[in-house]
Amino acid sequence: MRILAILDRIETATYTLETACELAARLGHPLIRVLHPELQDNPDYQMPDEGMPSPEEEKRFAQKVSATADALRDIFQKWKAGLTGEHAAEWIEIAGDVRKTVAREAMNADITVLSRPRSSDPEEVTQAFSGALYDAGTTVVVAPLQHHGTVGRHPVIAWHPSSALDRAMAAAQPFLDRTSHVSIVIGEDRENEVAEPPIAEELRKKGVTVSIDRFVIASSDVGEEIRQHALKAGGDLLVMGAYSRPHFIEWLFGGPTQDILSHATLPILTHH
After folding, report:
1. How far apart are CA 3 and CA 131, in angstroms?
2. C-alpha span between 164 and 196 (Å, rounded)
3. What structural domains and CATH numbers belong to the chain?
4. Number of C-alpha atoms within 13 angstroms, CB side, residue 196?
5. Is the Cβ–Cβ distance between 50 and 44 less than 8 Å?
């Protein structure tokens, strides 16, 4: 099992590392590769009509990139120093096109851990997320924006049959096989219109307790309803397919206008 963690924001780096560490603990302590995808070119000057940066602007950009890398490296080193002997982690920095860098590295990983996107993020953060989820086609775990004690002990499956969910559940199988309790959340247009998912009986045969939580979809904000039911179930890893729709993450977290920092979140394992 190969775990890649992407660090691109100082304020969320610790939670991304904690999530990667929890995943590794559940998966037999594989090596965690921690990548900082470093900007090489100033994103303010990408088009011909945007002109060329002045020497002063180039200097400020280089200083900002260097300061971010130094801060993230320091966070990583302090985190690594506190790991037990079972855990192993390595740091890498790669400068260049962020989306292409993340996609290339994620293709060589089984799970890529990124921090939860926010509407105020710079473009390179969105590019990193898109590179992992859409370009690399890898399994992505979205780390929460706060400390989360466990990851994967109580998975919650957001049931919406699709090839993306099939791939997400396949990636989550090591967690499903190692747990004692799985919850399945089913959003329906009408009560009891969706048959019980086959995986429920498969897990019961393995001795896993399965809880089915059905709800009638009451609004267009299905992502928020799923999140609330997953939290109510006491889950610590939401497993769902990444729908082929624009702004999937904004949809899932209630849209860019919400103050998502004020809402409790949990890690999400997803696949496109």
Report:
1. 16
2. 19
3. 3-143 (3.40.50.620), 155-271 (3.40.50.620)
4. 12
5. yes
* 203, 173 contact by CB (below 8 A): no
Specify whether the CB–CB gap between 267 and 235 falls below 8 A: no
155-159 vs 139-143, strand pairing mode: unpaired
**Of the candidates 174, 152, 181, 173, the residue with the CA atom closest to the CA atom of residue 20:** 152
Q: In what order do the strands lie in the sheet with 32-39?
A: 89-96, 32-39, 3-6, 111-115, 139-143, 268-271, 237-241, 155-159, 181-188, 209-216
Residue with tokens 């209630």: 254
pLDDT-based confidence at residue 261 (cuts at 50, 70, 90): very low
89 DSSP β-pair partners: 32
Q: What angle do CA 207, 202, 23 make, to 5 degrees?
A: 70
Instruction: Give the max Cα distance, the chain.
Output: 67
Q: Are 161 and 240 in contact (CB under 8 A)?
A: no
Predicted confidence at residue 253, as pLDDT, reads 54
Q: Are 66 and 36 in contact (CB under 8 A)?
A: no
Of 192, 56, 72, the closest CA to residue 128 belongs to 72
* Whole-number Cα distances in Å, 81 to 87, 88, 114, 179, 222: 11, 10, 21, 29, 41
Check: CB of residue 105 under 8 Å from CB of residue 94: yes
CA distance 193 to 187: 10
Q: Check whether 35 has a pLDDT greater than 90.
A: yes
**Interval 43-63: pLDDT, tens:** 776 655 556 778 888 888 899
**Per residue in 87-144, pLDDT tens?**
999 999 999 999 999 999 999 999 999 998 777 888 899 899 889 988 998 999 999 9
